[in-house]
Amino acid sequence: MTVYNYYVYPDKTRPRVSQMLILPPFQGEGHGAQLLEAVHRFYCGLPKVQDITAEDPSENYVKLRDYVLTKLCQNLPSFDADKLHLGFSADMIKEAQEKLKINKKHARRVYEILRLRATDMSDEEKAKAYRLEVKKRLFGPYRKNQRELAKMRKCLRPEELVSHMGQLDTQTQHEELEKSYQLALEDYRRIIERLASQA
User: Fold this and answer.
1) Nearest CA to 1 among 89, 64, 44?
2) Where does the Histone acetyltransferase type B catalytic subunit C-terminal domain lie (predicted)?
3) Which of 1, 193, 194, 199 has the greatest number of beta carbons closer than 10 A?
């Protein structure tokens, strides 16, 4: 594993995982999770560290990071099962950042995973509340597309606007949003299963 320290104004650093390699014969045995957890535990003790990031993370690395960060956060008081149904809070962001050097974006994903674990998905109301909470985060890029469309309407001719409309179609956005939600749910369930098997 290679980690570089980057300067953060005015007096902090931001360690960035640049490369991580587990040789094929040793993959699937938990070594990656142990290594990443060791890096987090090392940097957590350093007061000058802002947060820990990764340089261009692969899909597998993101899943590994989600697992490790969820494992680390599950025992924090702000991520207690009783508090998860109240929504993602400033206390969660602050505690994850101060104690584990986790940024807001990653703390949000951890919250979603732990909330799924604490939610009875057979209860329609609870399942709907959870789905809406996750989709609220996933909707961010689509909201940006809507703002871009409004700008385009002001400056493009109608024939130019038509070519961009297909990319920003509302029905397509809803389908993509649902697809993103289902993929996230699938990943989150795998992490929850892995946490349960490690307990």
Assistant:
1) 64
2) 65-116
3) 194
CB of 14 closer than 8 Å to CB of 51 = yes
Q: How far apart are CA 63 and CA 33, in angstroms?
A: 10
Structure confidence at residue 159 (pLDDT): 66
Active-site residue, 125 included? no
- pLDDT-based confidence at 182, cuts 50/70/90? very high
* pLDDT tens, residue by residue, 101-142: 999 999 999 999 999 999 999 999 999 999 999 998 888 776
Q: Are 18 and 4 in contact (CB under 8 A)?
A: yes
Are the C-beta atoms of residues 74 and 45 closer than 8 Å to each other? Answer: no
Output the pLDDT for position 198.
Answer: 83
Distance, CA of 40 to CA of 45 (rounded, Å): 9
